[in-house]
Amino acid sequence: MAQLDYIGFGGVRLAAQSYGRDDDFGILLLHGGGQTHTAWDAAALALAQAGRYVISLDLRGHGASEWPGDGRYDLDAYIGDIRAVLATLPARPVIVAVSLGGWIATAVLGESETPLATGLVLVDSPPRMDPAGSGRMGDSLRRAATANGGQWDPRMLDGFDLSAVEDRLIDAARQLKMPTLVVRGERSPLSTQESIAELAACIADVEAVEVGDAGHLVAVDQADAFNALLLDFLERRIPLSPPQYVAGFDSRTLRDALGCFATGVTVVTTLDRDGNPVGLTANSFTSVSLDPPLLLVCLANGAGSLPAFLAASHFVVNVLHIGQQPVSGRFASRTEDRFGQTDCEIWDSGVPVIRHSLASFECARDTVHDAGDHKILVGRVQRVQFEPHRDPLLYFRGKYRRLHFS
């Protein structure tokens, strides 16, 4: 084990314990209210022994983490903390969380524009808790507050209002896209089968399990059963061994692996034999040579506009900026009036140039090469224009992205 320190929202210092080798696949553990990272001790050891690198975090105001001077224990403060921790990790982890930690994880992952985790395990964390059980638990924590030995800040009890964020958490759950396991203890005083079913119904890729003879603290009450469930889920849905492509098999894996290379997005334009403009969206684009000035784009053999590009003497590559995602979508679809809805200008070759692009390259066709199910179109650059104050539209793993500045 090793002690880790992070800086969370508002400069609050966060402490964590790590287990296992830091080059193994990552797991982030988030405890519940009035607990510390020690609630996960058995699970953390089992995960580390199974080849996972575990970070067991003390939430703000809990364990060895700092008590915020301003008393901020609202959902957004917690979200800021977890996003700060995730930003330091070299890869997206699986998050395993219970009650308060689960609500925070749901909001962090569901409200993010980009995937921040590869999987999620929610233990007794439905947004709509059983009112009677929740009230009894709150009373119990308040009675224990004066005798908690400084393990957690009693102000946390009034700082987080679940009822005020129930609908927000439900909306966040509907946006979760990663494999998710929902776990409930059969004797939990906080959740019901109905509340767990409501949560599971919101999540696209979900498995739900109830553990017998366990209460709210499933990972403690039935440690062996919980660890077996957790490891089974991880091995099936987020395995340690990465998917592999072997020549001639599993083209989906090959495509997914190629999608790990983040690219810009371009719209390539030209004129057909009748002088009509044609264009398509492409991300297979690269520079080839500065002397002579050459670049290339790869066009699919099945593209309807391919014959026009093969016959044309000139073409233009327009590199799109972040505000031009609608342009990319337009030229990737079969919209009839692509150019009528796009602001263009004409340069020397007569080929349409999309105005305000991040960069535009007007090229004379140099060579064409057959390459499997694509044609490689090499162009000799004749004129260039670029905009130095905009950010690029990016494409990664099948989705549009934007630059993140740390």
TrEMBL record:
Residue ranges of domain Flavin reductase like in the record: 258-402
Cell wall biogenesis/degradation found in the keyword field = no
Q: Which InterPro entries match?
A: AB_hydrolase_1 (IPR000073), AB_hydrolase_fold (IPR029058), Flavin_Rdtase-like_dom (IPR002563), NADH-dep_flavin_reductase (IPR050268), Split_barrel_FMN-bd (IPR012349)
Molecular function as annotated in GO = FMN binding; riboflavin reductase (NADPH) activity
Check the record and name the SMART domains matching this protein. Flavin_Reduct
Q: Which Pfam families match?
A: Abhydrolase_6, Flavin_Reduct
What GO terms describe the biological role, i.e. biological process, of this protein? pyrimidine nucleobase catabolic process
The residue stretches assigned to a coiled coil in this entry are none
Is this entry keyworded Oxidoreductase?
yes
* Keywords of the record: Oxidoreductase
- Which superkingdom is the protein from? Bacteria
State the protein's name: Flavin oxidoreductase
The record lists the lineage as: Bacteria, Pseudomonadati, Pseudomonadota, Alphaproteobacteria, Sphingomonadales
